[in-house]
Amino acid sequence: MADSIAAISTSIGEAGIGIVRISGENSIDIGDLLFRGKSVKSLKESENRKLTYGHIIDPKDGEVIDEVLIVFMRKPHTYTRENMVEIYCHGGIISVKRILELILDNGARLAEPGEFTKRAFLNGRLDLSQAEAVIDIIRAKTDESFKVSLSQLEGSISNEVRRIREDILKMIAHIEASIDFPDEDIEQITYNELEKDSKAILRDIKRLLDTADRGRILRDGLNTVILGKPNVGKSSLLNAILRENRAIVTDIPGTTRDIIEEYVNIDGIPLKIIDTAGIRDTEDLVEKMGVDRAKDKVEKADLIIAVFDVSQDLTEDDHSIIDIIRGRRSIVLLNKSDLPRKWDKGYLNKLLPDYRMINTSVIEGVGIYELEQEIKNMFYAGDLEVESNVIITNMRHRDQLNKAYKNMKSGLEAILSNVPLDCIEVDIRNCWENLSAISGDAVGEDILDRIFSEFCIGK
Ligand SMILES: Nc1nc2c(ncn2[C@@H]2O[C@H](COP(=O)(O)OP(=O)(O)OP(=O)(O)O)[C@@H](O)[C@H]2O)c(=O)[nH]1
Ligand SMILES: [Mg+2]
After folding, report:
1. What's the CA-to-centroid distance between 10 and ligand 2, angstroms?
2. Residue nearest to atom 8 of ligand 1 (CA)
3. Which of 37, 153, 348, 433 could form a disulfide with 54 if both were Cys (CB 3.0 to 4.6 A apart)?
4. Which of 231, 235, 341 for a ligand 1 pocket mutation test, highest count of atoms within 8 Å of Cβ?
5. What is the C-alpha separation between 56 and 37, in angstroms, rounded?
């Protein structure tokens, strides 16, 4: 980490200001090479963390690049814990790019995605779960997911995991003491206590794991797939929910051929809504690929909205939809209810008992509100306020918690069958390590690379 890194931290496009950032030991020297202040001659003399007015110039020929504000932040009280310089120039494409190029020509290299945050982690300012929360904050699509991510950045997960890890360490210390000073009586006490402790730890891990389903939905949106045979009104429904003409709608069956994914917020519930190609047996190659994609999406769906056309008799294609949704979390729409009906709820109810069915006429806007309310009720029993801020939203954390749970469970089984203490210790240590990976105390370079490569450049 000896080199200095630089990147544009604001998004590229028309904007009031743009920010270019440098981090590293010689960021201050680079800043001084490029900056001509009005009153401050050198950044080194400038007051720590105080904005200074002046110009960025090309040191080769003195050409003025832009009028800026600049700030020098002395280590270690900075985002990366290194010396940092931030330049606030005019927004837009040109100024930020030229300033970045000058910085790169004068001693810094272009930062990799997430590299500022990676340095913050490597320098001990954030633990890994906090660093991961940073990208979730940037990507948050609803107030709730933002709130949860912010609390993770402030350490909600770290604190909870640290507490559990301390309890595990106590168990390990207890085991080692008993191994070192063996005595039959003490050993029996040890087994009883280990049983109690491991059960408590299992409960704690389980409590966190139980939040993961909801956490994933908060973070990524409820994966909702609109499914039905061609021409039943799927794309019309997508447009109605989005309240815009996003997808092409025609009366030609087979209009939608690819997957269309959009985000929408229904009373705070983030929905990733996916319109699909109408399911049918077809010889058309492109349409067939669309149908396969639709079926793929079903596998990962949290919710299926199955659309049927009540103005037409049910066909074999409808029956294949019925087969697909059986046993899955679905809401059934009886669409085109403005037209004369060929059948009604009762008929479909026999085939799909216990499914919520709603009469809709997407074209007239009937039933959309009921659908939205139903989605809300299904997932949050009407209440989406986040009561607890310790919610697992990150799948890596969930995986680690799952592993930790399994290891502690196998430890408990070993305790209950009076397996020798040193064998029990192995499971418990594994559990401890699984949890350590959440805060990043025991993760390899490859995992770090993967995590930070998902970041945007400049963060
Ligand atoms: N009468 C009536 N027509 C509707 C309703 N909903 C959709 N339509 C019409 O049905 C036709 C098909 O609508 P789409 O939304 O394109 O149907 P789709 O299910 O996406 O069709 P594919 O993309 O081909 O699978 C269009 O002409 C719509 O205007 C409705 O509630 N009532
Ligand atoms: Mg369509």
Report:
1. 37
2. 233
3. 37
4. 231
5. 9
- Domain locations in the chain as residue ranges: 4-111, 134-211+392-453, 218-380
Please give all residues whose CB falls under 5 A of ion ligand 2, grouped by chain where several chains appear. 234-235, 255-256
Mean pLDDT of 366-377: 93
CA 17 to chain centre: 28
Distance, CA of 228 to CA of 321 (rounded, Å): 6
117 lines ligand 1 (CB under 6 A): no
Angle between helices 184-209 and 156-180 (to 10 degrees): 160
pLDDT tens digits for range 115-170: 999 999 999 999 999 999 999 999 888 888 899 999 999 999 999 999 999 999 99
Whole-number Å distance between alpha carbons of 337 and 342: 10
Question: Is CATH 1.10.150.120 the right assignment for the domain spanning 4-111?
Answer: no
Banded model confidence at residue 380, pLDDT cuts 50, 70, 90:
low
Q: Which residue is it, tokens 């040191």? A: 59
Q: Examine the pLDDT at 103 and tell me if it is beyond 60.
A: yes
* Contact status, residue 161 vs residue 209, Cβ threshold 8 Å: no
Q: Is the CB of 255 under 6 A from ligand 1?
A: yes
Interatomic CA distance for residues 202 and 50, integer angstroms: 49
218-380 in CATH: which number?
A: 3.40.50.300
Average pLDDT over residues 212-218: 84
Domain covering 134-211+392-453 in this structure, CATH number = 1.20.120.430
